[in-house]
Amino acid sequence: MTEFDLIVIGAGAVGENVADYAHKRGLSTAIVESELVGGECSYWACMPSKALLRSGHAVRAAQRLDGAKQAVTGSIDPAAVFARRNSFTSDYKDDGQVSWLESADITLLRGHATITGPKTISIDGETHTARGAIAVATGSVHMLPDVPGLADAAPWGTREATSAQSVPESLMVVGGGVAGSELATAYASFGTKVTLVARSGLLGSQEPFVGELVADSMRELGIDVRVGVSPTRVDRDEHGLVTTTLDDGTTVVSSEILVATGRTARTGDLGLENVGITPGDWLHVDDTMLVEGTDWLYAVGDVNHRALLTHQGKYQARAAGEAIAARLQGTDLHTEPWGAHVATADHAAVPQVTFTDPEVASVGLTEDAARKQGLDVRAVEYDLGAIAGSALQADGYTGRAKMVVDEDRKVVVGVTFVGQDVAEMLQAATVAVVGEVPIDRLWHAVPAYPTMNEIWLRLLETYGRP
């Protein structure tokens, strides 16, 4: 039997941060992992997917510049892209991540953890207890829609798509969310014939113009984008080909099928029933990540369903680590709205980048979401391609920007950019939203010329002086 102040289940980026921040506050900490230390983001999600996308982005950026496009004479080398992707995943070995845990004095427990009671887990028959808390950071897994034949057709999930070592001749992508849109873009860059079906449209949680601009660009890339349709049956034949029948009566034959229609909590086999929680459910938490109805169980990252993004999970982890240590040590737990122990940005200040081409960068609330929250808002839009910096960035630059303002407080509550290279512009918008910077003060944040950040001045001019 071993005992620690804190036991974290799941050694992905989120779990590592919970353990690290608690340990820095003096807690003895163990972390449990049944797969690779580093988790989904390191090996099957964030890093490998963006590595697959980056080469295509770079080539197309050069092709949009007269004087540079003449130098682009060949096509993308998928084998080289996959090799570069493998370097980011350390060839799917976690030695480096394990070494970091050792350097941070965090104990690694290999195996599958089962919660057997309050503050108690079992790993392969060995019991471990926590004096203060157990934190669940097991993330989420992709789920398959109930389509006849789909499960038997051995579909790809995001893991298979991001870890593939060869390029399929053709690919059916089911789902128009972030994962489906990004991976369709990546494989189209490799020369794969891609068909994407999206029942509810592309990137539907964003501003309406986002999906339209991304769909137009996808079609230019050669992707067959079909909106408003969904599969009714999937079959894989003896030759390995997949036939997808759609509800409009058409069929698509492809080498592989990728399903990216949603995710579900990875809580089905943790023993949660032993502490009165339904297995498979999302774990609902307060702003310190404490699971409702408990005083010892925390849920951090995707598993709490607040914001399924690695950077938000790590943000939650920092707050949770601080809160767990404070509670165990009996120190004052400051829970003011923007204090160290709470993850309040989850509610209305979440930044997100979708690495399609064009990129989509957004933070805070869309106009529709803000109105549904009862805010009195005014929104202004501007052609991002009309900015001098954008014209320098790419010939014929296409993009759009939108700013949503709370009229009662005169502060920005949401910003969306669509266009080439907009990801690196997002932090300024995030600071404006989180800092609740008054519109009249933003007029004094002078954007450097000629950069794409001049979009801020144009948005303010369109809005007008308060």
Explain what the structure shows.
By secondary structure, the protein is α/β, with parallel strands linked by helices. It has 3 domains: 2-38 and 94-141 and 264-345, FAD/NAD(P)-binding domain (3-Layer(bba) Sandwich), CATH 3.50.50.60; 151-261, FAD/NAD(P)-binding domain (3-Layer(bba) Sandwich), CATH 3.50.50.60; 358-463, 2-Layer Sandwich (Enolase-like, domain 1). The chain contains 15 helices and 21 strands. Strands 1, 2, 3, 4, 5, 6 and 16 form a 7-stranded mixed β-sheet that branches. A 5-stranded antiparallel β-sheet has the order 17-18-21-20-19, sandwiched between helices. A hairpin with a 2-residue loop joins strand 5 and strand 6. Helix 1 runs parallel beside helix 9, helix 3 crosses helix 4 and helix 3 (46-63) packs across helix 7 (178-189). The radius of gyration is 23 Å and the shape is globular. The mean pLDDT is 97.
CATH homologous superfamily identity of the largest domain? FAD/NAD(P)-binding domain
CATH architecture of the largest domain: 3-Layer(bba) Sandwich
Q: Characterize the largest beta sheet: strand count, sense, and whether it forms a barrel.
A: 7 strands, mixed
Q: Compute the average pLDDT.
A: 97
Number of helices: 15
Alpha carbon gap, first and last residue = 64 Å
**Principal-axis shape:** globular
Radius of gyration, taken over Cα atoms and rounded to an integer in Å: 23 Å
Structural class: alpha/beta
Strand content: 15-25%
What is the CATH fold-level name of the largest domain? FAD/NAD(P)-binding domain
Count of distinct structural domains: 3
- The beta-strand count equals 21
- What is the name of the CATH class of the largest domain? Alpha Beta
- Which spans have pLDDT < 50 for at least 5 consecutive residues? none
- Fraction of residues in helices? 25-40%
